[in-house]
Request: fold
Amino acid sequence: MASFFAVSAIYFGGLIYTTSGQGTPELVVLLADSGLPGQQGTLFELDIHHMNSTQRTGKPISSPVAIDFDMETRDIYWTDIGTQTLRKVKIDGTESKVVAALTSRHEGLTLDSTTRQVFITDDGDNRIVRIEMDSLQPTVIVNTDLDKPRGIVVDTKNRKLYWVDWGSTPKIETCDYTGAQRKTLISGLQAPNDITIDEHDGRLFWTEGTGSIESVRVDGSDRKTIYIQPGQRFFSISHFNGIIFFTALQAPNSFYVSTDTGSYSWTLNVPNLQASTGIHVFSPNFNASVPCPDGKYGINCDPCGKCKTICEKTTGVCLEGCETGYTKNTCTQVCDSGTYGDDCGSACPNCKTGSSCNHLTGRCPDGCQPGWMGDYCDTSCPPKTYGASCASCGYCAGDASCDKVSGVCPIGCQAGWTGDKCDSACPPKTYGASCVSCGYCAGGTSCDRNSGLCPSGCLKGWSGLTCNTNGTTGTEKSTQGNDDVMSSPGVLVGITAAGLVVIAIIVAVVVVVVIKKQKRPKDKTYADTELTDKGEDPYETLGDGYIDCVSSEATYQQQRAESDYAICVSDGEQYPKQGVDVVYFTCLSDGEQYPQQTSVGDYATCLSD
Reply:
């Protein structure tokens, strides 16, 4: 007999919960699978807390029907109508043994771990048998007035048995462990198949093959219908901590779960389950004296997580899955980063790198990745746009669209544009896709930005379609877009014009100087000097002659004959010493040489202005 993980996921209410390692279970569902006709049966062990499933197969298992668990020895017991035996196996799959060889069809099974007794129903020989678990000694305790007894359950608190009889007069009966105190609890049933008990509340639950789950107190009072699904042949049933679990012959790969009040119910699908028959539910480490109310679970009756309905009352597992935006078996954790929605089953769209979407709605609060737009960043940017804000592409060559993330033009730019994104216009007096410098256009105009043609022809001395061929040398002007600015035709024209202006100024100055020289008085003596700007008559003596030259706001002092020289203090220049015989005066303030004088009284006029 092999023991292995045969199922990787359990489906609850249509939602998938991925399984993980075995761990220590808190709630276990045992399922008997009688198999398809001609095929071998299987036992399933489902760990509700960790959502694990273990499938046990092997020759000792043929067509299992009823199933139960011994809490003391951790043995699984089942009746096998294929081999007509009562068998047991450790929960880890070891030590498979035959407990009893049966002579007919035994479909009902229950046990009391405390008193170490097993009870089975025999609907072939119409009897109820007790078997001592340690000695394996069988005892028939009821064998009269039975008509196809099937499901059976023990009340360990009161040491009583309850069973259903589905023959000609369907009913529920009861007796003690010895067969005494037998009585009919309730009659008038339709097609009862199995029975279970809530010992804490003193209530029985049974399945009807006509599609209902019903309940009654252990004294036969307060009968009520818990669940109805017309046409469904409900078969085996088990109760634990306020929840009932049951199988149906028309739903061979699933079982049902409901609160024992019928207020909530779920369908649990198990892959590879072919023909579910018997079911038994237990917890190896939990036994609440009073079940929690709906919406709470565990020893302290903690609130359920964000379940769609309520959680299972032992483990807190949300059997129907989580509310939108929550995950894990107990629905206490928000969706992992990058996921959102029902069962966190949706991947976040193209949110900005490093951020996640809202775990409930899927919206991207920090914006989108480049190339995407919208609240959910699930809409691609329109053609010829790019980036997080869907900015318009530049002027790509061939009217192509740019890269939707970077905005780069794949085959370059249209004429007149430059840059990786082709969104920068070429500088003035350039043209084409590479921003080539214009040629020497006439009038200093710019060329056509697309073709490079000069609209008014070429500057004199230049030719060619783009006016970049020198008419004298025959060489072409460099057309690189980054030529030195001094090679630009406009700059050269500007320099030429500035040079002409300078030359004109120089000529004008020369003309003025010449004219003034022509107007200068001849052979005029020092004593004849007239200062027209102040209207003063000159005053001169040979001893200390002087004259104020106020035309330039300077003072010229005529020194004595023995040390004749003139100092022009207007600009701090020293003028040459003058002799009596050869008198001359040089005005160095403007570099001009004035005529030599012929007498002592002769003077030279300093045209400082």
